């Protein structure tokens, strides 16, 4: 798969404003999910999914509670879910997902982050067709064979199960995310190193050193935007 999921997460957390920015972005995502449905994760699958992912980033309970309470309180703050697609150096492809209460601001900021770093925004659909939505769940303390047996006993399908350093990473269809987690939880596994639905590139590319440096600067600029929740790309950064 070309991705070391735990390393990517750790790198993002360590460079991201001492994690405070990650927590702020989760606060918005949790608020939006809670407001769109019931503020109870057992009755709101979208909220349950966000909380599972937040747990892998060690988002503090007070931030989670504050976002849910804000949704319960009937706040009239509204956010739009946006997806931008674009290109970076040497034919690299990028998808940017955002939550924003100011569409014009976000579009301008994303366009500038691309343009100032050797990239350019594309039209809707210009990049996404080269990516597959994929559930990614990671855990420790089990082998790939043991995890496969657990999923088979629960009659749950996975695309792939790989051992990456100290972890086992499960790749599955997005609609299997909760089924995979429930099967693992039934088997006594309750802690996950990764738990998210991502966009995986069908083919990754390797950039020359100068192109990779410019590309990483562009990705950092996009991820630093307050309205940007996720950035996906097709470049093997060698983590």
UniProtKB/TrEMBL annotation:
Subcellular location: Cytoplasm
GO molecular function: DNA binding
Entry annotated with the keyword Hydrolase: no
SUPFAM superfamilies from the UniProt entry: YebC-like (SSF75625)
A biological-process GO annotation: regulation of DNA-templated transcription
Pfam families: TACO1_YebC_N (PF20772), Transcrip_reg (PF01709)
Chief location category: cytoplasm
UniProt-listed InterPro entries: Integrase-like_N, TACO1_YebC-like_2nd/3rd_dom, TACO1_YebC_N, Transcrip_reg_TACO1-like, Transcrip_reg_TACO1-like_dom3, Transcrip_reg_TACO1_YeeN, YebC-like
Taxonomic lineage of the native organism: Bacteria, Bacillati, Bacillota, Bacilli, Bacillales
Domain TACO1/YebC-like N-terminal residues, every copy: 3-74
Gene3D superfamilies: 1.10.10.200, 3.30.70.980
Family the entry assigns: Belongs to the TACO1 family. YeeN subfamily.
Protein's recorded name: Probable transcriptional regulatory protein FSZ17_04385
Superkingdom of source: Bacteria
GO cellular component: cytosol
Keywords: Cytoplasm, DNA-binding, Transcription, Transcription regulation
Residue ranges of every copy of the TACO1/YebC-like second and third domain listed in the record: 79-235
Record organism: Cytobacillus dafuensis
């Amino acid at each position: 798969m070309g991705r070391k999921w735990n390393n990517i997460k750790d790198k993002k957390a360590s460079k991201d404003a001492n994690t405070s920015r990650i927590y702020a972005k989760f606060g918005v995502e949790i608020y939006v999910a809670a407001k769109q449905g019931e503020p109870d994760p057992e009755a709101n699958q979208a909220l349950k999914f966000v909380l599972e992912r937040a747990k892998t980033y060690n988002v503090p309970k007070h931030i989670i509670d504050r976002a849910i309470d804000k949704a319960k309180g009937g706040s009239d703050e509204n956010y739009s879910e946006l997806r931008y697609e674009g290109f970076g150096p040497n034919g690299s492809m990028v998808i940017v997902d955002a939550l924003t209460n100011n569409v014009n601001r976000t579009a301008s900021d994303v366009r500038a982050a691309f343009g100032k770093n050797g990239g350019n925004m594309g039209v809707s659909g210009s990049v996404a067709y080269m990516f597959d939505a994929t559930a990614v769940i990671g855990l420790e303390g089990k082998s790939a064979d043991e995890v496969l047996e657990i999923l088979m006993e629960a009659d749950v399908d996975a695309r792939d199960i790989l051992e990456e350093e100290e972890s086992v990473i499960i790749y599955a269809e997005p609609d299997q995310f909760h089924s995979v987690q429930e099967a693992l939880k039934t088997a006594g596994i309750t802690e996950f190193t990764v738990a998210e639905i991502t966009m995986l590139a069908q083919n990754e590319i390797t950039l020359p050193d100068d192109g990779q440096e410019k590309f990483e600067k562009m990705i950092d600029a996009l991820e630093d935007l307050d309205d940007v929740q996720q950035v996906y790309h097709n470049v093997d950064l060698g983590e």
